[in-house]
Every structure is written in structure tokens, then in C-alpha cells.
Design brief:
It catalyses: 2 nitric oxide + NADH + 2 O2 = 2 nitrate + NAD(+) + H(+); 2 nitric oxide + NADPH + 2 O2 = 2 nitrate + NADP(+) + H(+). With 392 residues, the protein is of the alpha/beta class. It folds into three domains: 5-144, Globins (Globin-like); 152-243, Translation factors (Elongation Factor Tu (Ef-tu), domain 3, Beta Barrel), CATH 2.40.30.10; 256-391, Nucleotide-binding domain of ferredoxin-NADP reductase (FNR) module (Rossmann fold). The chain is built from eleven helices and 16 strands. Helix 2 crosses helix 5 (100-114), helix 4 (77-90) crosses helix 6 and helix 5 (100-114) runs antiparallel to helix 6. A six-stranded antiparallel beta sheet has the order 6-5-8-3-4-7. Strands 12-11-10-9-13-14 form a six-stranded parallel beta sheet, with helices on both faces. A two-stranded antiparallel ribbon has the order 1-2. 35% of the residues lie in helices and 21% in strands. Strand 10, helix 9 and strand 11 (312-318) form a beta-alpha-beta unit. The chain has helices at residues 16-27, 32-44, 62-71, 77-90, 100-114, 121-144, 222-229, 265-276, 299-308, 331-337, 352-364; strands at residues 5-7, 12-14, 152-161, 166-173, 184-189, 197-199, 211-216, 236-243, 256-261, 284-290, 312-318, 327-328, 345-350, 372-376, 383-384, 390-391.
């Protein structure tokens, strides 16, 4: 990589390595840097406080770290701009307006200067140019969808407990919420104001607009715990615009391999639902990995789907115990030994270790990386990372 990067949008050359080194020095201060950042932001622009949760315990360094990561990657605009556009559209749900961006930028630069004794005019100019480009892309993307709602109110019309820590919710937006099977939608409840978490609908778009949401309550997870244990029928949630990249290739008619772990099952059920609604005939193998048999919270509905659709085969892999009639082993290993899959298009969704292992096994089995789409479904997913993946 060159020492400097020329940004055609601003006409400026910015020293990316110097910016990354500068941010690393601030990050080395640990929690002090984000605490200083938020203190500066809220003191200089108190109106921004309403954009954040009442308790900042779960916010911590997320915004500060994301800002540093994004701004220091302006040398890769081709991949960064679509993500920034997505973030700009998504941030409307927080009440973010164009006037907030300069305030955040000023606090970012003040923080980076505070923690770097080598700070100078050149570094300040580089960060300013890079941040202004990022803000410009996000503001323009938000303006392009100004005629669309920043969020959708949705009534809970069904709440079914599936074990101690899992629930399946059915929610119905007041107005249609467009999304593609496999995408994720952020969700907020009045029980945890301004804490948005991402979940994937387990169905393709329906005429009545209803969405099926799978939630597992994680220890210490304020939103997931509330959704499982406190939210009930009649409550109203807020849903943000769809994000994510786990979706079918619309030009492909290949047979599918879907591999799920945990509530990563939800988006893959949506894919199955979309195939069922399509005239194009495709074989679909859905492999679901669980640690124990009693973790298979959606067993009855999976059996129903397999019975209704002769093109669908459901395989369950149980890793920590032997279960009659079910495969034993890590789901990636079970997939590897039940192939071949070289001709398939594969979608993988689940916890980080499961996704990584499964993708590696598929590559070892000869499936090209270009035909593997994967997304990590981690606890309490607050939003997309800088690569556009919906993770924690």
C-alpha cells in the first residue's frame, strides 16, 4: 500500500498509515479514549445525548472504534461507500440529522489529539478530510430516502416461548416494511429505549406484512432478555430498515446448501420460504447445528416444512450428545461428510466459531468461496461492522 491515498471526491491526499498509527495510540488508552470522546461530545453538544441509551454500559467504545475504523479506510472507497450509505440510511432511526455529523467529527479529532503528543496540523487535516468524506456519503444516503420512514411501528401479534431462553415472536408493522429474505432488521422496545438490536425475519415478505422473529435471551443481554421474558402480545416494537448481505444470488438457479447454528436458523428459514414461493425448482439441503437435542427450538416447524416440500431435506447435527435419528458432531463436520456440495450455492449463519469452521470445511470440500455467503449471528448484535456484516 502507498504511504498516501488520493481521494478523488475531495482532491486531498491523506496519510492513511499515519492516521491508523494515531488511532492506535488513542485505542491503547483503553476505556479512557471512548470515555473522553463521549464526555467531549456531550459537553460541547448536549443535544446529542438523546441519540444514545440512558445507560452507556452497552455502548462503550462502539461508536468511537467504528469511527476510527471507517475513517482510516477511506483508501478503499469502492468497498466502503456502500457500507457508509447503508449506515447513513440506518442511522435515521436514532434521530440523527446532518447537523450531528460535524459535532461527532469535532469530538473524534479532539480525542485523537488528546491521546497523541505527536498530533500536528498535517494529521488534523488528514482526519478532517477523511471524516468529511464519510459524513458526506452518509448524509447524502439519508437524504435519498427522506421520503421513507426512519422506522416502522410493529405490533406483537404472537409470542411463543420455546424453552427457558428462547421465544418466537410474530410482529406486524403498521405499514409495509420491504426486505429481502436473509437480511436483518434492527429492533427497539420501550422497555429498553434507544438500544437497538438486529434480528433476521424467519419468513419471506408476506402479503399481510407479518414477520417471524427468533430471539434467544443471552445473559446480560438487556434487549434479548426483555423480548423473551417481558414483551407480550399487544406490545409495540420499532423496526429499522433492513441491512446485511446474506441473500440469494437473484441470477442463480443452483441448488442450495443452508447451514444454521442457533438463531442463525431464522434467515435461512426465510430463504426456504422464498424458494417455496418461487416457480423455479431447486433442491435445498438445510443443516441445523445444535449442542444438545433440547436446543432444537424449531423442530416441529422444520418437520412441517420438510413434509410439505419434497425438494427440502433437513438434517440436524448435535455436537455434545448422541441423539437417536440425528447426526452427531459439529455441524461443519457433518456437512463435510454428507456432501458432495461442489455444485451448490451455500449460505451459512450462526455463532462466530461455527460460521468460521463451516466455511473452512466447505472450502476444503471444494466449494468455491464465491458461492459461499456467511453471516455471524452473535449475541446482542448492535449493528453492521465496517465490512457490512451484522455482528456484535
Amino acid at each position: 500500500m502507498c504511504a498516501t491515498s488520493h481521494d478523488e471526491s475531495t482532491g486531498a491526499s491523506v496519510d492513511i498509515p499515519a492516521m491508523r498509527a494515531n488511532f492506535a495510540r488513542a485505542a491503547a488508552a483503553g476505556d479512557e479514549a471512548p470515555l473522553w470522546f463521549y464526555a467531549h461530545l456531550f459537553l460541547t453538544h448536549p443535544e446529542t445525548r438523546q441519540l444514545f441509551p440512558v445507560s452507556m454500559a452497552h455502548q462503550r467504545d462502539r461508536l468511537f472504534a467504528a469511527l476510527g475504523d471507517v475513517v482510516a479506510r477511506v483508501d478503499d472507497l469502492d468497498s466502503l461507500v456502500p457500507i457508509l450509505q447503508q449506515l447513513g440510511r440506518d442511522h435515521r432511526k436514532f434521530g440523527t440529522v446532518a447537523e450531528h455529523y460535524p459535532a461527532v467529527g469535532a469530538s473524534l479529532l479532539a480525542t485523537l489529539e488528546h491521546f497523541d503528543e505527536d498530533w500536528g496540523e498535517a494529521l488534523a487535516a488528514d482526519w478532517t478530510a477523511a471524516y468529511e468524506l464519510v459524513a458526506k456519503v452518509m448524509v447524502e444516503a439519508a437524504d435519498e430516502v427522506a421520503d421513507q420512514p426512519p422506522w416502522w411501528d410493529a405490533e406483537v401479534v404472537g409470542h411463543e416461548r420455546r424453552g427457558i431462553d428462547t421465544a418466537v415472536l410474530r410482529v406486524r408493522p403498521a405499514t409495509p416494511l420491504p426486505f429481502r429474505p436473509g437480511e436483518s432488521i434492527s429492533l427497539e422496545t420501550d422497555l429498553r429505549p434507544r438500544l437497538w438490536r438486529y434480528y433476521s425475519p424467519a419468513n419471506a415478505p408476506r402479503s399481510d406484512g407479518e414477520l417471524e422473529i427468533h430471539v434467544r435471551a443471552w445473559p446480560g443481554g438487556p434487549v434479548s432478555t426483555a423480548l423473551v421474558h417481558q414483551v407480550g402480545v399487544g406490545d409495540v416494537l420499532r423496526l429499522g430498515p433492513p441491512v446485511g448481505h446474506l441473500a440469494l444470488d437473484p441470477e442463480s438457479d443452483r441448488d442450495l446448501l443452508l447451514v444454521a447454528g442457533g438463531t442463525g436458523l431464522a434467515p435461512l428459514k426465510a430463504v426456504v420460504d422464498s424458494v417455496a414461493r418461487c416457480d423455479r425448482a431447486r433442491r435445498v439441503d438445510l443443516v441445523v447445528g445444535v449442542r444438545r437435542e433440547d436446543h432444537l427450538y424449531d423442530r416441529a416447524d422444520l418437520a412441517r416444512l420438510e413434509q410439505e416440500h419434497p425438494w427440502l431435506t433437513v438434517t440436524v447435527a448435535v455436537s455434545e450428545e448422541q441423539a437417536p435419528g440425528l447426526e452427531h458432531g459439529d455441524v461443519g463436520d457433518v456437512v463435510a461428510r454428507t456432501g458432495p456440495w461442489q455444485s451448490r450455492e451455500a449460505l451459512v449463519a450462526g455463532p462466530p466459531a461455527m460460521v468460521h469452521h463451516t466455511v473452512e470445511r466447505l472450502l476444503q470440500c471444494g466449494l468455491p468461496r464465491s458461492r459461499i455467503s456467511a453471516e455471524v449471528f452473535a449475541p446482542s448484535r448492535p449493528g453492521p461492522d465496517v465490512d457490512g456484516k451484522v455482528t456484535s
